[in-house]
Amino acid sequence: MATHGPCAISRRASGCGLAIAAWSAAALIGGIGGCQRTSAGQSAQGSPPAPSSTRPAARPSSAPASAPRVPHPRIPERAAAPLLGGELGLDHVGVAVRDLEAARVAYEALGFAFAARGKLPNGLENYNFYFSDTTYLELLTTWDRAKNKWVAGFIDRHGRGCMFMVLSVASAEGAARYLAGRGHAMSKPLAGSIETAAADRSDRPLWHTLYFERSPLPADNLFFIAYDEQRRRQNLERMRAAREAGTLRQHPNSALGLRAVWVAVEDLATARRAYESIGLAAGRELELPQLGGRGVEILAGIGSILLLAPAGPEAPLARFIGRRGNGALAGMTLRVASLPRARRAVEAGIGQQVEPFTGVFGPSILVPPEKASDVWLEMVEPGPAI
């Protein structure tokens, strides 16, 4: 179980922020101009605006989640957890780095494009790579360490790496009641809005974010976002129409979206119980010999969370846990439209071959972590059509 160490306390004291989903449509349909700014104390993208460490925890109750929306048709029935309320689930991941420009160049060398930049009032700046399924990959760093000690502390300790993952839920209040009913103390939902060069600041909140006061998971790196329902539906419709019309811009590596986030754990059974305790169902057991690991899939809407434990003390996963700690995010899987295209883009960008293999989700390639900011980056085709 993650506790409130110095990193968590500084996160809650500083506050960070998240994006609204409309950015994915703007980036892939018509592009984004200018920097992104948000309401005071929050970022357009980036790590979440956590509550003050002095704020009392929500009292656990037996109140059920609010009435869920009809699950999105892209979500398999087995992955439509009540926690999500019909929302898409896996939303984005954040990769913290020392040198933001160098990280952008490195990821563009892997075939990602259309990076949207933001400089935020809470001391963060970032680049976001958006995908056609509305998920996205965020690179972030600090421009003012004093304003964001959480991210600064992560970079001081680790230099770079995958720092957090975010799940979208239909209602922050409903998710908070649902989790409290399962015995988890939650923050109060925090409202956020965005101001950009392309659009005026909204008069009403565009999203709400939600956090564990004391995470039951192996590490405190999972958060929740609930988008404004009207804007969310508009954005999803824009993306659907653009897909059908064939007008979406494509990444050179043909990336379509996030498929899974990899969580490195010391004890697989304990980690599985922790994720099940928040209402996410476990799926199949799996093996990942490339990292010397075995694991279990946790279903999270349109994507998955892969819990991976090292098969032995010399496995790459064991060495990773030794450096980063139990529950750290080790990597991610992205769906691509064409694995040969992805392979060509990656090999041209990094100047070395990457050999295809059969991964957890199908034919894959694996980008070495030293080429992706200390993140194992898997590309898979065909990704499950969800």
Molecular structure report:
With 386 residues, this protein is α+β, with helices and mostly antiparallel strands. The protein has 2 domains: 6-52 and 73-245, 2,3-Dihydroxybiphenyl 1,2-Dioxygenase, domain 1; 255-380, Roll (2,3-Dihydroxybiphenyl 1,2-Dioxygenase, domain 1). 25% of the residues lie in helices and 27% in strands. The protein has 9 helices and 18 strands. It has helices at residues 6-14, 22-30, 100-109, 149-158, 172-181, 229-245, 268-276, 316-324, 339-350, and strands spanning 36-38, 89-96, 116-119, 124-130, 136-142, 161-168, 190-192, 194-196, 207-210, 222-227, 255-264, 282-288, 293-300, 303-310, 329-336, 357-358, 363-367, 376-380. The strands form 3 sheets. The protein has an 8-stranded mixed sheet. Strand 4 and strand 5 form a beta hairpin. The longest helix is centred in the middle third of the chain and has 17 residues, at 229-245. The chain is globular. The model is unreliable at 3-22 and 31-68 (pLDDT under 50).
Descriptive key words:
about 375 residues; alpha+beta; 2,3-Dihydroxybiphenyl 1,2-Dioxygenase, domain 1; eight-stranded mixed beta sheet; disordered N terminus
Task: Specify the CATH architecture of the largest domain.
Answer: Roll
Question: Number of folding domains?
Answer: 2
Percent of sequence in beta strands: 25-35%
Molecular shape: globular
Count of DSSP H/I helices: 9
Structural class by secondary-structure content: alpha+beta
Number of strands: 18
Amino-to-carboxy terminus distance:
31 Å
Tell me the name of the CATH homologous superfamily of the largest domain.
Answer: 2,3-Dihydroxybiphenyl 1,2-Dioxygenase, domain 1
Radius of gyration: 19 Å
- Please, what is the average pLDDT? 82
Low-confidence stretches: 3-22, 31-68
